[in-house]
Design a protein that fits this description.
mainly alpha, ABC transporter involved in vitamin B12 uptake, BtuC, two-stranded antiparallel ribbon, 11 helices
């Protein structure tokens, strides 16, 4: 097989992997701040894309205004989820919180289906369909933009966790009771993490929605996101970026080589194997702390 073709697959896959990292970053933000494994991140990604459509198509706003407004709206949704559904579970067994986030995922998908229907809707944010040429290589322009957004948000959150508020969130994740004892508002900290995660989910939903359309399939990005988060380390933003690059390149190359022989389905197989093997061999991920719990 042509080596240049494999290189093109790997580069485009790595760029797509950075977009998977956007979903993973939302998962990591909540886990890093509150030790809660969030299984509703895929549904939040889908809802964020639908909210953009509501503002752009329903309200007639230009996309440059619809996207920021949707991000603010989704931050409010994240705050509401924490306040209504999760605050009363603070200090309860982690399995109860895990089941709550799974229930939220099902609920959000059902409500979106009931309101928006099941038909895929296009989301045009101004990214050209024309490929970018890097010498003889063809790069997907949408993947390039998505990768740039993922890296930008990564650096913003790295800086955030070095601020006073970021340190407070990390302290809450380490020990709820100790944080309460020293006067830290655990409730506000956890609510902030859900708001930030919902903001990131909207960014991911907009970018992926512009590529594949907006429908229920966006919620399935949870599988890619959770795999990237587990592989990189559930408490590591940097791990999410590196794991996303690796997973994206691996599944793209495997798909390009094996799909013609097997008839398809290689991408899902690669993701499932990576998730299973990571949990079996290195449950704390490549860059996660050894003493944290794993799904």
């Amino acid at each position: 097989m042509d080596l240049m073709y494999l290189l093109e697959l790997a580069i485009n896959g790595a760029l797509a992997g950075l977009m998977y990292s956007l979903v993973a970053m939302g998962i990591v933000l909540i886990y890093k701040s509150s030790s809660v494994p969030n299984l509703a991140q895929g549904a939040l990604t889908m809802v964020g894309a639908y909210v953009v459509l509501v503002f752009a198509n329903g309200a007639g706003l230009p996309m440059w205004a619809a996207i920021p407004l949707a991000m603010v709206t989704m931050m409010g949704v994240g705050l509401a989820i924490e306040r209504v559904a999760l605050r009363r579970l603070a200090g309860r067994p982690i399995v109860m919180i895990l089941m709550m986030t799974l229930g939220l995922d099902i609920f959000l998908r059902a409500v979106t289906m009931a309101i928006g229907g099941g038909t895929a809707r296009p989301l045009r944010i101004g990214i050209s369909d024309e490929p970018l040429f890097l010498g003889p290589l063809l790069l997907n322009r949408a993947y390039v933009v998505g990768a740039a957004v993922a890296l930008l948000l990564f650096f913003v959150f790295v800086l955030f966790f070095r601020t006073r508020r970021g340190v407070v969130l990390r302290a809450i994740a380490d020990d709820y009771m100790a944080s309460w004892a020293v006067g830290i508002s655990v409730e506000r900290g956890v609510a902030l993490s859900w708001a930030l995660s919902s903001l990131v989910a909207t960014a991911a939903g907009v970018l992926w929605g512009s590529i594949q359309g907006v429908d229920q399939s966006l919620s399935m990005l949870l599988l890619k996101g959770i795999t990237v988060a587990v592989l990189g380390g559930m408490d590591s933003l940097g791990g999410a970026i590196l794991a996303g690059i690796g997973l994206g390149a691996l599944e793209a190359v495997a798909s390009g080589v094996l799909d013609p022989l097997l008839g398809g389905g290689t991408r899902e197989l690669v993701v499932a194997l990576v998730l299973i093997l990571t949990i079996m061999i290195r449950p704390h991920g490549l860059f996660g702390r050894h003493d944290i719990e794993r799904l």
